[in-house]
Amino acid sequence: MKQKDYYDDKYILELSEKISVVLPDFDAKQFANDLIGKIGDKELFARFDQIVDSMEKNMGNDYSENVRAFHNMLGPELAQPEGMFSFGWWLWPIGRYVERNGNKDWELSLAFLKELTKRFTGEYAIRPLLKEHSKEVMDELILWTTDENVHVRRLASEGVRIRLPWAQKLLVALEEYKRYTIILTNLKDDPEKFVQKSVGNNLNDLFKEAPEKAKYIIAQWEKTPTSKAREWIVKHGTRNQKQP
Predict the structure, then answer these.
(1) CA pair distance 201, 191, nearest whole angstrom
(2) CATH architecture of residue range(s) 62-237
(3) Measured over all CA atoms, what is the biggest interatomic distance in the chain, rounded to whole angstroms?
(4) DSSP reduced 3-state for 238
(5) Radius of gyration (C-alpha) of the chain in whole angstroms
(6) How far apart, in Å, do the first and last CA atoms of the chain sit?
(7) What is the mean pLDDT of residues 29-38?
(8) Are 55 and 31 in contact (CB under 8 A)?
């Protein structure tokens, strides 16, 4: 089954029921009528946008109230690092809703994404927050780099990538380079491959945009004793660079 086909009529009915539990005034019937039989010809992100259009139409207009309610429908945290790509798919339109509206209450949105990422990725929804509140969000992500939850640590890295797949380019890594460097440096010896891959991909993105800045970060790391995690990250981050 293609990824987009997960979001079918059955999914719409299940999502409408979940939202109704936490938002009793949600017009689940109209939501279903808006979508059932009408998204099967759409690509993945077009489906998300049509779902979010109907969510916005059939929920109340208080964004903060809606997000607080969504806290109550997240379910249990994932037990494994890569689990978000196996079990959390149903939450993607919720993240898309936050991606679209998050700056209406960016602090609440950021707190919500910290919980969302423990069940499914928040890497897309966090990017508008970074664009509008770069310093404040980056400061929070620096704290996340030391979080005990692997998904939170990964989001601290993945969210600030310059060239995140399926997302518009984000240059906060250059605009807040000092903070960005702290984030990657705090994660350079992370024991989880899930995080290591994200940090390496950050370096790879940075090499494409500002190679001297990428080289500087690696040079600073070389001033301290290395680790197997760091060696892997650097190798992954420099995989497209010509070796001397």
Answers:
(1) 16
(2) Alpha Horseshoe (1.25)
(3) 64
(4) coil
(5) 19
(6) 44
(7) 98
(8) yes
pTM here is 0.95
Encode pLDDT of 191-230 as tens digits: 999 999 999 999 999 999 999 999 999 999 999 999 999 9
Distance, in Å, from the CA atom of 213 to the CA atom of 218, rounded to the nearest integer, reads 9
The number of angstroms, rounded, from the C-alpha of 197 to the middle of its chain's C-alpha atoms is 15
The angle subtended at Cα 11 by Cα 23 and Cα 51, nearest 5°, is: 65
Q: How far apart are CA 149 and CA 139, in angstroms?
A: 18
Amino acid at 231: E
Q: Residue 141: CB partners within 8 Å, gap ≥ 6?
A: 155, 156, 159, 160, 179, 183
Tens digits of per-residue pLDDT, 108-139?
999 999 999 999 999 999 999 999 999 999 99
In angstroms, the Cα distances linking 231 to 9, 22, 179, 197, 236 are 46, 46, 22, 12, 9
- N residues, the chain: 244
Closest CA to 70 of 6, 120, 139: 120
